Amino acid sequence: xxxxxxxxxxxxxxPQSPKTLVIEDTGIGIAPEDLPRVFERGYTGYNGRTxxxxxxxxxxxxxxxxxxxxxxxxIESEMGVGTRVYLGLDTVEL
Length: 94
Hints:
It is globular, with a radius of gyration of 14 Å. It is an alpha+beta fold and 94 residues long. The mean pLDDT is 86. The chain has helices at residues 45-51, 58-68; strands spanning 9-13, 20-25, 72-78, 82-88. The chain is built from 2 helices and 4 strands, in the order ββααββ.
């Protein structure tokens, strides 16, 4: 939300992938070179360094929680267009 000062945030179930929750915004987006590292502890990327309000802990904790629940999380983003976070809510049989 902090990177979507104008625009919209949508939350919906992905019609193409059952049991996948999508959180989508029309914010500033994430630079392509930052995407592979956004789930690393302490990594803030270009936007976080510019904005100086980022700690690099939020997405790291999201990944940790999703892993412990046997769920998945992935991000797609385009600079100036927005970001989509996909939460795979299917569970793994143990």
